[in-house]
Design goal:
The structure is a single chain. The chain has a 21-stranded mixed sheet that branches. The chain has an 18-stranded antiparallel β-barrel. A two-stranded antiparallel sheet has the order 9-10. It starts with a helix and ends with a strand. It has two helices and 44 strands. With 895 residues, the chain is mostly beta strands. The radius of gyration is 31 Å and the shape is globular.
Length: 895
């Protein structure tokens, strides 16, 4: 799964090509140098052979073993250009968030010498990508690397390597987003050195060289973009001395010097970018047995530039690598790194161009891999980085996370599924129109899903499995949810959304997304059967009272007042699912409901013709849930459903244009308590062994309901103010990942959890008038992160019930336009911190895996602003109080 972290670095636009001298110096005398591009055939090479009792893998060719491979990947990318999506037209080449599906063909071959002395390795491969809807983004990357070692005697050797590659910059790079096509470049890399052991000391000296050559591009206006001023050569020399104090502890000191020389100088802005620098550090390498090993160092880095307008950079230098074999089947690796990277980035500050000399890139990453079965491997990773641009006011925080599943269809055929989430939070802002436009232009969120099939075109001989038990399904199954009759009661929270649309007489049209939340209570009863294979099917009837209500009102004679109230609801659903090892029932539902709505609509200048009608509408309901046994007859339930109702018209006058259309949809979360009649004696089985403490991670998918309570004072043509209040909102998809750590005392659980999510929640109000006036406004919630404490209780069947309390950080974009003067239009990004609280349940699937049902609400507080129309005489004063409700189903793994 090395591919997972490699691709995250690429997608963040911060991967530095080539081999650094620190990498070369870190190898010990007896170690084999790694090649830079390891994300191809060599990923799957097993270090098997005599120690496993199996013949070596690979195709023999004299004194070499060959490892050819071929991979085919389908990738779905939600934001191929890595953009904010809120920028006005014409600011940059690509303003909109555009998704696409990409096919990637990845042939590769690794060649490894099989000699008793010396070593020679070759690695070649390519990534050939084709975009379905954006062919200008197609790329053909390739690489060819060779490295070797010549053993002079038992204590000394010489080593070296050479590599050539053709690559492209990801669109998220601040230097590569403007062209019609991605920036492409060639790289030539070389390294060489000498290592010798003298007593308890190992001395290693070496050098690296790299040549980068960038292709020119074409800009948004059709003019050429010169990238020749980025062409450069980088040379470095270094030495490292290690003291073999004990087999476990080996302190070292290392130092290197570097020259960076540009071939076209000065650059397009007249800056000399040549520089010289050094790095020095002391550290220690530790090997604490079979389970823990690593390296840590600290020191300083310094870089001085030829151009006197660039200040020298002097910063602490830190680095670490850690490998922990947590269990025979679980491995956790971590790294910390810092480097000074080249850039030609510039931006306007106070009306003048500010030019960056470089950026300081600090990064930390943790990767966990677990072999679930002999054929199935799980992986999860999270990374955080910061790019601190020198000489300009910009710093980017970069978050990457993902998880993957690899399944061996055969010894030679691998099926891989990966999900990756990327987020960049930048303090760079695009400001225009005296602050009416104020956007976090450097921010973006991006999700990718990979499905890959990889063929290993050589004989593969797996290692013999280690002794122990894989995390397979638990052998013993407890009694729990069975067939028969049942009944119960439930309470919940409803989010009722409505898309309203209609004419405004001779004054144009009005479309809006409305939403309100409210509590609901009801009862349910049903019948079902469970098969011998523990599959469940049944039918359920339900009834409830209450739900989400919303309103819209403005005290102006030509405006409208309307509202929606939810009364009672009756429905029937088919339920199907599976009874788990601990007796809990996971189910999905599909059915129909009949719900009564009170709909009011009034044209303020014609109150006598107001509509106040009661309608019963039919809705199609889908949902998921879990029934967890709590005794011989008693069970409790978590249930979430989404219902789409038939649209209906509300006439509020005698004319053909006096009709408003309502299109309702509901998100409904409920907690229930039920009783089964008959059934079998309750015999709980706990796959977790009564312990859910420790580290865990997972992914989740669900629905987010964004609601805004709007209060405003409107002014038009010198008249007003008019009081306006309304409940706007809508629903959207919510995806995310989570990781945390918990402690357990008996059945009491206490933990902390970090999560990141990507949401598509947005509501809009659009008003079209004959004269081009009216008010258009919208709110969009983008991705964010959350940190929460969790307090829970574990039942005797292993299910963890919990409550959460914490903080959520999310990016919002809000827009507000009135009249025809575009300079008064507001388009702003804000980072909002909200209070998040909620509850949920984690039901064990196996001793280590679980499924989660989670509901949370976040109160983000207010967004307030005043427009600048008529120098205040026609200004609107607006306050939006925002909340979000999220229900998510997740799958997680405990390490």
């Amino acid at each position: 799964m090395k591919r997972l972290s490699f691709s995250i670095a690429v997608a963040l636009g911060l991967l530095t090509p080539g081999i650094g001298v620190s990498h070369v110096l870190a190898q010990e005398v007896e170690q084999k140098p790694e090649t830079e591009r390891g994300a191809s055939a060599s990923d799957a090479i097993e270090d098997d052979g005599p120690s496993t009792g199996l013949p070596p893998s690979g195709l023999r060719a004299g004194g070499f073993r060959l490892f050819p491979s071929l991979g085919v990947t389908t990738l779905y990318d939600t934001n191929i250009f890595g953009v904010n999506g809120s920028l006005p037209t014409g600011v940059r080449m690509h303003e909109e968030e555009i998704s696409d599906t990409i096919g990637v063909l990845s042939p590769g071959i690794a060649v490894r010498s099989d000699w008793s002395r010396h070593e020679l390795n070759v690695n070649a491969g390519a990534d050939l990508a084709r975009y379905r809807d954006n062919p200008d983004e197609d790329y053909n990357d390739f690489w060819l690397n060779a490295d070797g070692r010549y053993d002079i005697n038992a204590v000394s050797n010489v080593f070296g390597g050479l590599g050539v590659s053709r690559s492209h910059e990801d669109r998220t790079s601040p230097e590569g987003f403007q062209g019609e096509e991605p920036v492409r470049y060639d790289s030539l890399d070389a390294h060489a050195g000498y290592a010798r052991r003298i007593g308890q000391t190992v001395v290693r000296v070496g050098g690296t060289a790299q040549r980068l050559d960038y292709d020119n591009g074409v800009g948004v206006d059709g003019d050429p973009i010169n990238h020749d001023d980025r062409d450069r050569d980088i040379y470095a020399l270094g030495a490292r001395i290690s003291y073999l104090r004990t087999p476990r502890i080996q302190p070292f000191v290392q130092v290197s010097a570097e020259e960076r020389r540009y071939r076209n100088t000065p650059d397009d802005l007249g800056y000399e970018r040549d520089s010289s620098g050094y790095r020095a550090a002391v550290g220690v390498t530790a090997n604490l047995g079979d389970r823990l090993s690593g390296e840590v160092y600290g020191g300083a880095l310094y870089q001085e530039f030829d151009d006197p307008r660039f200040s020298s950079v002097s910063e602490p230098d830190v680095g670490a690598q850690l490998a922990w074999q947590a269990t025979p089947y679980t491995r956790v690796t971590g790294s910390i790194d810092r480097s000074l990277e080249e850039t030609t980035y510039w931006q306007f500050e106070d009306g003048l161009p500010a030019v960056a000399s470089s950026y300081l890139y600090s990064r930390a990453e943790v990767l966990a891999e677990h072999r679930l079965t002999p054929r199935t491997t799980l992986s999860a990773m999270v990374s955080y980085g910061q790019a601190d641009y020198q000489e300009v006011d910009r710093a980017d925080d970069l978050v990457g996370a993902g998880f993957g599943v690899e399944y061996k269809l055969t010894d030679n055929l691998l099926l891989q599924l990966d999900y990756r989430h990327f987020q960049r939070d930048s303090d760079y802002r695009y400001v225009a129109n005296d602050g009416n436009v104020d956007l976090l232009a450097g921010n973006y969120q991006r999700d990718q899903v990979y499905l890959s099939l990889k063929a290993l075109l050589y004989p593969v001989h797996d290692k013999l499995p280690a002794m122990g038990r894989f995390s397979r399904l638990h052998a013993e199954r407890g009694n729990g949810i069975d067939g028969g009759l049942y009944a119960g009661a439930q309470l919940g929270m409803s989010g009722m959304a409505a898309a309203t649309s209609g004419p405004r007489g001779s004054h144009g049209t009005d479309d809006g997304d409305m939403q309100g939340t409210g509590s609901t209570a009801g009862a349910f009863a049903g019948w079902g059967r469970t098969t011998r294979d523990h599959w469940y099917a049944g039918i359920e009837l339900e009834g409830s009272r209450g739900g989400g209500d919303w309103s819209h009102a403005k005290n102006k004679s030509t405006s409208r007042t309307f509202s929606l109230d939810t009364n009672d609801s009756w429905g029937a659903s088919l339920r199907g699912g599976r009874v788990l090892e601990n007796g809990a029932l996971l189910y999905a539902r599909l059915g129909a409901v009949r719900t009564e709505f009170d709909t009011f609509y009034q044209a303020n200048d014609a109150p006598a013709e107001a509509a106040d009608q009661t309608d019963r509408q039919t809705g199609r309901r889908v949902g998921v849930g879990v029934d967890v046994p709590a005794g011989d007859h008693l069970f409790w339930r978590l249930d979430y459903s989404h219902t789409d109702y038939d649209a209906y018209d509300v006439p509020y006058g005698s004319g053909p244009e006096a009709v408003e259309r309502f299109d309702n949809a509901e998100g409904l979360f409920r907690i229930g308590l039920g009783w089964r009649f008959g059934g079998q004696p309750y015999r709980p089985t706990d796959p977790t062994g009564g312990d859910v403490s420790g580290l865990y991670a997972g992914a989740q998918l669900g629905q987010m309901m964004l609601a805004t309570d709007m209060d405003a004072q409107h002014r038009s043509q010198g008249q007003g103010p008019y009081d306006f209040s309304a409940d706007f909102g809508d629903t959207g998809l919510d995806t995310g990942i989570f990781a945390g750590y918990g402690l357990q005392w008996d059945r009491i659980y206490l933990g902390v959890e970090l999560s990141a999510d990507s949401s598509s929640g947005e509501w809009r109000h659009e008003r079209e008038t004959p004269g081009g006036g009216g008010r258009d406004f919208s709110l969009e919630k983008k991705g964010g992160q959350a940190l929460a404490a969790r307090l829970g209780y574990q039942l005797d069947n292993g299910t963890l019930l919990y409550a959460r309390l914490g903080k959520a950080r999310s990016q919002f974009n809000y827009r507000y336009a009135k009249g025809a003067q575009a300079s008064n239009d507001i388009n702003r990004d804000e980072i909002e911190i909200g209070d998040r609280y909620g509850l949920g349940a984690e039901v064990p699937l196996t001793p280590n895996t679980f499924v989660r049902f989670d509901y949370s609400r976040t109160d983000y507080g207010d967004i307030e602003f005043v427009t600048g129309h008529g120098d205040g005489a026609n200004a609107d004063e607006v306050r939006w109080e925002n909340t979000s409700d999220q229900f998510r189903v997740g799958v997680g793994y405990r390490f």
